[in-house]
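Many introductory courses stop at the sequence. We go one step further.
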Amino acid sequence: MLALFGSVIVVVSVVSGFLMAGGNLLLLWHPSEVVVILGAAIGAFVTSNSLKVIKAAFGDAIGLIKPPRYNRETYVELLKLIFDLLVKSRKEGLLAIENDISEPAKSPLFSKYPRILDDHHMTEFVVDCLRLMVGGNLDPNELETLLDYELETHHKEAHEPAHAVQQVADALPGFGIVAAVLGIVNTMAAVADSSAAELGEKVGAALVGTFLGILVAYGFVGPISAAMKARAEEEGKAFEVVKMALVASVRGYPPPVAIEFARKLLYSDVRPTFSDLEGSLKNKPPKA
């Protein structure tokens, strides 16, 4: 929603400034320029990316309207889920959680935290990590290295849509120049049969192409790409939190300490306090 609000500010500021200077909005309406710029940008976007990235880019851009998937309450749920799994595995042995990780949707532990269960990528990551702990005799360093490789792959994949959109933003000023040059070509072709006023109108229309290319690039597409990248980094933090807690557990730390290690990784705006998290783990209401 904040991204949409920012885009509205861009439009209002540009239009208001133009009108305050005595401009006429109809002077900016040239559909041919829009077709050249946006059509070329979309074509280049489709050419340079796979279908998977194209779908993800549109999905992530639309998703900016929604609040982030992981907020303070969701992180508390995630930490509580990991805590419950670690406590059960420590009390009853690692094999005790085998049924939980084989069918998470039917697991009483996972079912207590529906927001985490609805995140299929997170659920799969947690389950895969626990399978390594249950079925493999990995030492902490081997487990941490393996999870680092997996997170590196995940982060790279999550940033691909933002990178693709940024490439479009970088190209838009160039496409604006293309539209302007085409407009000048038409103007030059009409020099012999046009008055000075008509030529001025055609040159102005050509310049609108440059204006639109720069405005769309730096006012909309570029900021959207930056917001998509920031959202991907925010959501990627949740996977790092899980990794930290599980690696700490394999190193021999008790569940409360492992969860505290994970809590320390969170950004300040979503990090629960030590006392609030401790109360949540013990099913106590947080302090007001």
